[in-house]
Structure formats: structure tokens, C-alpha cells
């Protein structure tokens, strides 16, 4: 009975409230199992790869957007103790955990639609499973901000619905966590980024993971466009050369 009341009455109200105030949803979720969840082996390996990718460019200052409980931030900051690591998230509860996992990182509870950093501040801007949660009305502003603060590369690891068959796409769209199905590459391009590479993540794009019921991820690498008023990437030219040397990941 209580379950029915929740499903028919409270759930739609909760959804409407969370849709209007997504920070509240992530704040609540940050108090639940989600914060203490142990990563599955493929999730761990994917994060290790992304951290290696970010560090391979030898950046001096990086920003992780939507750090959540900090599992990736921890790997990036431990990978290079001299690196200035920053992280933002709208959820204070998740950031609390991130501050324990990555104590040297500079964290700020904020929305990616309004970042308190100067233009061209970060060599690399990166995130996991965050862009999928940006609703249409906020999207342009969010991507503009990521572009503004970035001076080199952007790495986005996201569920990419355009690679899914109908059944997987349906599962993606019917999830209860406010995901949106849109073209990340197009949004990045509109903000001024140049798409360098799009890859199906080999760790998640496996029969095993898909059979387990998880949706596989894609990795997008973009670069600040050289002609759009910045220096087009403050990282050295070595970075550009390394982009062609990517044996570790499968290309589409
Ligand atoms: C699925 S979780 C992923 C967390 C983390 N990146 C990870 O891989 O475990 C999505 C995260 O994005 C954050 N988030 C969602 N919308 C955001 C926004 N507009 N600005 C900043 N963070 C946001 C949420 O608070 C949450 O921590």
C-alpha cells in the first residue's frame, strides 16, 4: 500500500521537484549507497585509463566537472602530486566524500553552467557521466562555460545513446535519473570545441558488461578550437602528437 502511494503520488512529485532542482536529487543520492559503492573492475579500469589519458598530456592545472564521490579525481591527483587539481559538483554530499578521497584537490560546490574560474584556466577539463544530465535549456550555457575555462583538451566519458540499438536506447531514456538523449559532439562543436576523437570504451563495451545489464560508455576527446580567441591549447605540441598514438583504446 505504502509502495503504491509512493508510486502514484509521491514519486511524480519528487520527480517534478528534482527535475526543477537537480542539485537536490544529487545531494540526496550522495547520501545513499552511491557514495560508498565499490567500483566494479571494469569501472575501475576505465577510470584508470582516463586518469592516464589526462596525465599523458602533462598538464599543470586540470578541472574535473561533476566529480561525484571523487573516484576519478583521486586517480588523477595521485598520478601527479605536482598537478593542480580542481573539481566542481552541484552536490555537497558527494563532494564531501571526494574531499576525503582526493584531499589535495581544490573543490567547489558549483554548477557547470556557472564556473568561478578565469578564461583559459585549465589545460584539461574532464568528467564522467555528467553531460548526460544537462537538460536542454541549460546545455548551451554549460558547454560555453566548459569551453571558456578550458585552454587545451576536454575529455568526456558518457553513455552515448547514438551508439545504442533500440532496446538499449529505451533503457537509457527510461532511467529515473534524469538523463537526456542528445548529441554531445554537436553541443561541443557549437560551443567552439573541435572533436579530436570518439571512442567506444573497451572496458564497458564488452559482452560481459552488456550482459550484466549495464549500458556501455563512449569517450569523447575535444580540443579548444585554435581560431576562437584563445591560444588553442596551452599544453605543449607533444600533446597533439600523442593523440595519434592511442593503441590503448579501440577506435570506432
Ligand atoms: C552519475 S554521477 C557521476 C559522478 C562521477 N563523475 C563518477 O564518475 O562517479 C553525476 C554527477 O554529476 C553531478 N552533476 C550533475 N549535474 C551537474 C551540474 N549541472 N553541475 C555540476 N555537477 C553536476 C552530480 O552531482 C553527480 O555527482
What does this 3D model show about the protein?
With 252 residues, this protein is of the alpha/beta class. The protein has a single domain (39-242), classed as Vaccinia Virus protein VP39 (Rossmann fold, 3-Layer(aba) Sandwich), CATH 3.40.50.150. Helices cover 42% and strands 19% of the residues. It is built from 11 helices and 7 strands. The protein has a 7-stranded mixed beta sheet, with helices on both faces. Helix 6 links the parallel strand 2 and strand 3 (106-109). Helix 7 packs across helix 9. The N and C termini lie far apart (49 Å). The chain binds S-adenosylmethionine (SAM). The site of S-adenosylmethionine has 23 residues, from helix 2, helix 5, strand 2 and strand 4. S-adenosylmethionine is lined by residues 22, 26, 65-69, 71-72, 88-91, 94, 111-113, 127-130, 133-134.
In short:
The chain is α/β, with parallel strands linked by helices. It has eleven helices and seven strands.
Amino acid at each position: 500500500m505504502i509502495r503504491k502511494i509512493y508510486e502514484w503520488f509521491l514519486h511524480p512529485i519528487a520527480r517534478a521537484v528534482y527535475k526543477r532542482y537537480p542539485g537536490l536529487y544529487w545531494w540526496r543520492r550522495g547520501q545513499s549507497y552511491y557514495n560508498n559503492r565499490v567500483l566494479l573492475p571494469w569501472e575501475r579500469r576505465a577510470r584508470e585509463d582516463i586518469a592516464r589519458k589526462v596525465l599523458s598530456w602533462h598538464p599543470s592545472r586540470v578541472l574535473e566537472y561533476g566529480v561525484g564521490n571523487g573516484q576519478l579525481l583521486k586517480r588523477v591527483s595521485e598520478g601527479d602530486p605536482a598537478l593542480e587539481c580542481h573539481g566542481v559538483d552541484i552536490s555537497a554530499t558527494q563532494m564531501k566524500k571526494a574531499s576525503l578521497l582526493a584531499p589535495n584537490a581544490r573543490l567547489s560546490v558549483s554548477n557547470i553552467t556557472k564556473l568561478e574560474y578565469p578564461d583559459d584556466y585549465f589545460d584539461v577539463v574532464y568528467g564522467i557521466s555528467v553531460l548526460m544530465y544537462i537538460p536542454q535549456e541549460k546545455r548551451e550555457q554549460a558547454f560555453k562555460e566548459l569551453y571558456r575555462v578550458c585552454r587545451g583538451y576536454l575529455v568526456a566519458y558518457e553513455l552515448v545513446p547514438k551508439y545504442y540499438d533500440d532496446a538499449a536506447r529505451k533503457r537509457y531514456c527510461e532511467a529515473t535519473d534524469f538523463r537526456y538523449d542528445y548529441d554531445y559532439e554537436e553541443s561541443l562543436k557549437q560551443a567552439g570545441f573541435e572533436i579530436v576523437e570518439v571512442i567506444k570504451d573497451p572496458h564497458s563495451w564488452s559482452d560481459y558488461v552488456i550482459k550484466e545489464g549495464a549500458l556501455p560508455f563512449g569517450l569523447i576527446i575535444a580540443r579548444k578550437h585554435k581560431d576562437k580567441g584563445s591560444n588553442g591549447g596551452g599544453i605543449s605540441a607533444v600533446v597533439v602528437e600523442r593523440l595519434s598514438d592511442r593503441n590503448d583504446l579501440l577506435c570506432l
